[in-house]
Amino acid sequence: MKAFFDKKERRRSSDLKEFKGDSLGLENKKAIKKYLSKSNNSKILFSGKVQKMNKRNKIQERVLMVTDEFVYNLDPGSYKSKREISINKINSIAVSNLPDNFFVIKVNDEYDYLFISPNKTEIISRIIGAYQKLTGNPLNLLFSDQIEYDCRGKDVKELVFSKTEDGIKTQIFQKKKK
C-alpha cells in the first residue's frame, strides 16, 4: 500500500507479510452468518485477532472482522458482536509515522476505536478499499506521532509515539473534551 511506504517508517518484516483475508475462517461459523446476512452480498475481507484498548487503558483481546460494509469488533470466544461500525460512517484512520502496531478508527458522530495488531497494514488496506467502493471517495489516512481520539463517554485521549534507544515508546494521555 503506497500510502504506508511513503509516510510511515516500517519494519523490514512488514514487506514480507502476505495478506490473508479471512484468516480465521469466520465465513463458515454459524455465529457469523447472521452478520453476513444483513447484506445480500456481504463478504469477509479480513478476520484476525487484535487487541483493543478500552477507555480505562486496559487491553482486551478481540476478533476484528471487516466486511465490504461493516467493521465488527467480536468477542473472541463466542464471536458475539461488541460493536458494528458501518464503513461509510468511518471518518478516517490514524497511524503514527513510526514502526508500531497501533491504529485508530475515527467514526463520525460516535466514539473512536484504538486497536493494536501486527496485521495493521492489511486491516487498513481492506477498510480503505471497502470505503472507496461504497462511497466512491478515498478514506482519509492520517499520519501523526500525536493522535487524539474520542473514547466512549466524554473522554478524549492523546496517543503519543516517540523513538527511544530501546524501540518505540507509546504513551496515552487523558485530555479535556473541548
UniProtKB/TrEMBL annotation:
<dbReference type="InterPro" id="IPR010926">
    <property type="entry name" value="Myosin_TH1"/>
</dbReference>
<dbReference type="GO" id="GO:0003774">
    <property type="term" value="F:cytoskeletal motor activity"/>
</dbReference>
<dbReference type="InterPro" id="IPR011993">
    <property type="entry name" value="PH-like_dom_sf"/>
</dbReference>
<protein>
    <recommendedName>
        <fullName>TH1 domain-containing protein</fullName>
    </recommendedName>
</protein>
<feature type="domain" description="TH1">
    <location>
        <begin position="8"/>
        <end position="178"/>
    </location>
</feature>
<dbReference type="GO" id="GO:0016459">
    <property type="term" value="C:myosin complex"/>
</dbReference>
<dbReference type="Pfam" id="PF06017">
    <property type="entry name" value="Myosin_TH1"/>
</dbReference>
